Amino acid sequence: MNEAADGAVSAVRDGAILRVTLDRPSRRNSLSRPMIDTFVATLTAAATDDSLRGIHIRGAGDDFCSGMDWVATNSTGQRPRTGDLVRRIPHTSNRVVELIHTIALPVVCSVRGWAVGLGCNLALAADFTVAAADAVFWEPFIGRGFSPDSGSTWLLPRLVGLTRAKQMLLLGEKIDGRQAAEWGLIHRAVDASEVDAVSEELLSRLASGPTVAIGLAKQAIGYGQHATLTQSMNQELYNVELSSRTTDFREGLAAFRDKRQPDFQGR
């Protein structure tokens, strides 16, 4: 398969922000296996890059991502080995969702058009998703004859509750960007012409914050989803111990004392 048909995931540094583009517009940015491998490698490298302070994920063209390209994956005519999904998926599409959810950097997704299956779950795993009001969020797994994957059964109930999660996962109901924002599924829905401006404002705010403290706060929020109150408070104490040793912590105290805005450096 040639590169154009296979698609690409491009990553470009823009100051302290890593801009990741899912680039396969002819297939609504459905993710081929090579694209997912690149996506995993890109996020893994970003996780250990101390100069980064934010990640922006978007789709090329009119859509965000229409999910995993199952047609291409299953068109070889060769029956996969038993257990193929169990061996492979944890290191590919599932790993992308895990990295977006756990990476110690703020992640912003800009969504236009379709966000389907894995594409929908990428947007849900991000810290903030800004979507066009007419974008479409859809979990079509049951309608295709297989059970939901890529974290949808974990993400949706926590974001919108069991009833709405079942509407999307068991009935396959589509919701638009405005409804997604009303449900609390995403951060904000705006006119399509405003998606870029709103995303940029959010990225600028996050990338100028105390990056270590933001990463630790993100980790604590994730930990708290499966912990007791006491366990969460204990985890917070360890995180406070770490964040209080940063340069940004000292700058935050100095700015408070001097009654000025802090100038955080992400250190």
UniProtKB/TrEMBL annotation:
<dbReference type="InterPro" id="IPR014748">
    <property type="entry name" value="Enoyl-CoA_hydra_C"/>
</dbReference>
<dbReference type="Pfam" id="PF00378">
    <property type="entry name" value="ECH_1"/>
</dbReference>
<dbReference type="GO" id="GO:0003824">
    <property type="term" value="F:catalytic activity"/>
</dbReference>
<protein>
    <submittedName>
        <fullName>Enoyl-CoA hydratase</fullName>
    </submittedName>
</protein>
<comment type="similarity">
    <text>Belongs to the enoyl-CoA hydratase/isomerase family.</text>
</comment>
<dbReference type="InterPro" id="IPR029045">
    <property type="entry name" value="ClpP/crotonase-like_dom_sf"/>
</dbReference>
<dbReference type="InterPro" id="IPR001753">
    <property type="entry name" value="Enoyl-CoA_hydra/iso"/>
</dbReference>
